[in-house]
Amino acid sequence: MIDPHNLPPLPALMIAGPGELNEPELEAVGHQVIAHYGEVWRELHDQTVSEIGKLLGAADPPYLVPGTGTTAIEMALLNIFEPGDKVLIANTGFFGTRLIEVATALSLSVQELPVEPGAPIDPARVKAQAKGTAGVISVHVETSTGVRHPIAEIAAAAHEAGTIYVVDGIAAAGGEAVDVDSMAIDAYVTATQKGMEAPSGLGIVALGQGGRARINARTTQVASWYLNIATWDRYREEWGAWHPHPVTMPSNLVLALASSLQRITNFGIEAWIEKRAALAGRCRDGLAELGLKPVPQPGCEANLVVAAWADNPAALQELLLRNGIMVSGGLGPTHEKAIRVGLMGLNATNEMVDRLLDIIRSA
User: Fold this and answer.
1) What radius of gyration do the chain's Cα atoms show?
2) Contact 52/188 with Cβ under 8 angstroms?
3) Any idea what DSSP says for residue 363?
4) Of 50, 72, 278, 335, most Cβ neighbours within 10 A?
5) Per-residue pLDDT of the chain (363 residues; tens, 9 = 90+)
6) Nearest 5 degrees, angle CA 142-CA 93-CA 275?
7) Cα–Cα distance for residue pair 146/124, rounded to 1 Å
8) What is the Cα–Cα distance from 102 to 78, expressed in whole angstroms?
9) Residues contacting residue 132 through CB under 8 Å, at least 6 positions apart
């Protein structure tokens, strides 16, 4: 039996998420539990939501929802679309497939847009195939391939086709540039455990103008109480001075998130993302020098996840584990063909990247 107070030695996490917490977030999440209502809590909650809005470039206050990133994806799709709506979903890999599965479970009619592993989504294909659909859905970063997709250009293509655009940014927010309003993204979904460097357990939905308009124009009732944005809006309006959400919030997770967001915004969001890009480049170039070529095509490489082809990824993972580092293997199109290095949280440093490269070099 595992003793939760005395875990065995564990490796340093350089997986595709979550990342290990920095010391300030460890202290915050270990704070004595505080009430999820009252003046102090309301100010903390509102401040955290405001900081999320700044990070994502969303003027419409985002929703901070207990659950995973997938919870937030369901919330966005459930509210923006109605059963039977036809949607175009880019199948970019494992998590593109996940979007198709979630949409299908919500009774949406899915038209798949296949995307070659390692390639970015082609906005021209989106424009051509999105006509007559209720919306386009894609990931921002496909975690299984380490590809960053051109969301601003995809949003423009979707709008030219007369429809809206919903983005899964779970593996992107905090590590990639995103501006919901200036990019005209209609809804952006993310979570806290990757680029935001906070604990897992909180999902986020940020609405752009098109997403809000679509929700306001619904003709059918949302088939959920918990995930119904109208429920969350009602509590914001009627209980906002004391309890601005309909459920018990995990207050310690929000404390840790408030701490990490403060660090990111104090550093400067643009400078923070540039730092993440430089670290990913260091890791990617180092792996390439050792014969592990990048999965993404040049110019679309992600900042939080570096994916590299490997002849024997399981052996590399085992080698790294023996030396105290855990990395991820491939998923979907990269399964048993690649390793994926996560650059988030405590171990997103030059020193850890160099240590990882030295271990591989020693083999």
Assistant:
1) 20
2) no
3) -
4) 72
5) 899 999 999 999 999 999 999 999 999 999 999 999 999 999 999 999 999 999 999 999 999 999 999 999 999 999 999 999 999 999 999 999 999 999 999 999 999 999 999 999 999 999 999 999 999 999 999 999 999 999 999 999 999 999 999 999 999 999 999 999 999 999 999 999 999 999 999 999 999 999 999 999 999 999 999 999 999 999 999 999 999 999 999 999 999 999 999 999 999 999 999 999 999 999 999 999 999 999 999 999 999 999 999 999 999 999 999 999 999 999 999 999 999 999 999 999 999 999 999 999 998
6) 15
7) 22
8) 10
9) 86
Packing angle between helix 269-289 and helix 350-362, nearest 10 degrees?
Answer: 10
Q: Max alpha carbon distance in the chain (Å)?
A: 62
185 near 57, Cβ under 8 Å?
Answer: no
Tokens of 79: 């509210």
**Secondary structure E strands in the chain:** 12-14, 63-66, 86-91, 109-114, 135-139, 141-142, 147-148, 164-168, 187-191, 202-207, 305-309, 325-329, 338-342
Q: How far apart are CA 358 and CA 345, in angstroms?
A: 21
The strand pair at 147-148 and 164-168 is best described as: unpaired
Amino acid letter for position 229: I
On whether the CB atoms of residues 45 and 52 are closer than 8 A, the answer is: no
The DSSP letter of residue 332 is G
Lookup: tokens for 123: 């906005």
User: DSSP label at 333?
Assistant: G
Does residue 294 sit in helix, strand or coil?
A: strand
Residues 338, 307: contact at Cβ < 8 Å?
A: yes
Q: How far apart are CA 94 and CA 72, in angstroms?
A: 18
